[in-house]
Design a protein that fits this description.
By secondary structure, this protein is mainly alpha-helical. It is about 65% helix and about 0% strand. Among the domains are: about 110 residues, Tetratricopeptide repeat domain (Serine Threonine Protein Phosphatase 5, Tetratricopeptide repeat), CATH 1.25.40; about 80 residues, Alpha Horseshoe (Serine Threonine Protein Phosphatase 5, Tetratricopeptide repeat); about 100 residues, Alpha Horseshoe (Serine Threonine Protein Phosphatase 5, Tetratricopeptide repeat), CATH 1.25.40.10. Helix 26 runs antiparallel to helix 27. The longest helix has 25 residues. This is Signal recognition particle subunit SRP72.
Length: about 675
Amino acid sequence: KMAAAAAGGAGAAAALWSEVNRCGQNGDFARALKSVNKILQISKDDVTALQCKVVCLIQNGNFKEALGVINTHTKVLTSDIIAFEKAYCEYRLNRIENALKTIQSASQQTDKLKELYGQVLYRLERYDDCLAAYRDLIRNSQDEYEEERKTNLSAVVAAQSTWEKVMPEDLGLREATYELCYNSACALIGQGKLNEAMKKLQKAEELCRQSLSEDSDVTEEDVEAELAIIHGQMAYIMQLQGRTEDALQLYNQIIKLKPTDVGLLAVIANNIITINKDQNVFDSKKKVKLTNAEGVEHKLSKKQLQAIEFNKALLAMYTNQADQCRKLSASLQSQSPEHLLPVLIQAAQLCREKQHAKAVGLLQDFADQHPANAAEIKLTMAQLKIAQGSVTKACMILRSIEELRHKPGMVSALVTMYSHEEDIDSAIEVFTQAIQWYQQFQPKSPVHLSLIREAANFKLKHGRKKEAISDLEELWKQNPKDVHTLAQLISAYSLVDPEKAKVLSKHLPSSDTMSLKVDVDALENSHGATYVRKKAGKLTGDNQQKEQGQGDVKKKKKKKQGKLPKNYDPKVTPDPERWLPMRERSYYRGRKKGKKKDQVGKGTQGSTTAGSSELDASRTASSPPTSPRPGSAAAVSATSNVIPPRHQKPAGAPATKKKQQQKKKKGAKGGW
């Protein structure tokens, strides 16, 4: 009975194995898994059955369950047997470090393990080792996967160019596929060759459309989805070129397609946020959700993830979420203590809260802890001090940056600020320190001589003639043929020591040697000349004879006499005040406002006023001989009791009489 049972079990197992084999060939791994489980019920430690079960689970995407089977049967499934499957499950579960250990612990490095090793190194961003692994694979492999290996190799070179700023070497790869063209474009972007990169991406798009058009089952939506990553890089190039509107439009088109690649969506959303900056904050808050999608951290490089986190902190600052901003920047600082951006974001947030002193203290602490990055931090500190109006303290901070204080740009900034503060001595000291540095380390540098000249000009401008002379003598000593420096030196000595100036003037070249051979005609006819000589026209006929008869004698133009006025009388002397305006002439008496000369005064009907002879200012002895100019007050005699006509008021007239008359004039058509 025992023997019969064993024979029956063996027969059933054989049938199950044939079923597993048939399902495996058809790609029906779910059904194959059921048969394998039945085999394991018959023989639970069957090594082949356990291997088949792991493979079926991997093919169905159940990586966690497959790894559980491997770890449960470690005695049967040793590392020699199942190393590749175990490492692959760990790789797909994003346990990259564990996958690397599994591969390295395998006793035999098969081709499958080498392929997986290259992928693991790429995910760990160990690009140099990854490049060596793929080169070895391409050199020692000859199968149908050669094109895929070359694509992976070009991806490694592109990553080196983009993230490590390494100049990529020419691999000699024929860009026959759109993947190879795309990777080549990414490498060019890393080098800053944006126009060339755009052309490569356009070629990649064309190749992609051609390859997909050969498949009749592929729809236009499928083509656009495949092209999304290429269009995303095109938009990125546009953004780098300053074409933000075009880039934004293309980014939004990609988002509308709803691609399944969460990494692509996260990068596009981040780039839109950088375009928005502190504007369109509501849209940025919507886009930032795409960067938080599940699995994003496994699709992007460390630098990409870091950039996204920085932008989240900045967005929190722009939206006045101070606590969130501090939390994100503190987290970033703990992850990368030596990085500048987290502490700069914290300082910016403190400045928004008007805590400038605290911001400067924070930056100072970071500069003390990380001397390698102190220069950029101190530049920010100086900017904050200038914003507060503490220019002298800002200068002190700038002068403490050892590696920058001799640079021409730094010298110029410090001299400008000290001049603004009228601290000429400190400005000259800045020049002196910079000149001494170049004299010690780069004496033949053109910057050295340029600084000496600028220092001399600065000293001359601020009256430090003797110090300027010392600098100019040094310049002339360096180049005795420099006439410009010699002229400056003579000019400076003429103010201090005229005799010395005369001695030096003997070194000036003579006027004959300084004469320039200039073609005057060519200069006058050159483009941009303010005067162009008119070309003589051809003379024909009578005109030619006239010209010949006249010879060199030129006609003198008769001066036209000015026209005289119609009522001009040569016997009468012209009015000496005729050039003055009428109101400013001595005999002007003003315009008369009535036909009758005697009706000067004003008053109610029937009232009497003083006689016209009494009111005529020209007849009074105390009246000034001339009328006042417009805008000046009229002089009135102190002995006269006569009130000028404009100042008279009729007897008994109320104060509001003038207003009543104005109202009456508006409504009345006739007189009283």
